[in-house]
Structure prediction request, 100 residues.
Amino acid sequence: MQVLNVTEYDDAGEVFGRPDQVELDVIVKNGLLLICELKSSIDKAGMYIFERTARFYEKRHPQTANRLIVILPMIDARARKVAEWLGIETYGDSIEVEAL
Prediction:
């Protein structure tokens, strides 16, 4: 398993609507690509930003993520609905994440 903290510059402003640095955690195991976010809490807007960040990565590194995962102890109810709609898995603790 390989865990990478990726930091890239989004010069087109795809993620935040203006040029800025983009950070995300990527796990590669047995050919699977998992894009993860570990936060203390997240709201609806944060969930959309995570999804845009994942798509930005996929576009830059031509590979589709097998799973998008957000690990956080507190999640806003509206953010949970957005995650479900976007296909993002949410967990309260890293030990809850199903086997990779």
The mean pLDDT is 91. The chain is about 25% helix and 40% strand. Residues 2-96 form a domain with the Trna Endonuclease; Chain: A, domain 1 fold (CATH 3.40.1350.10).
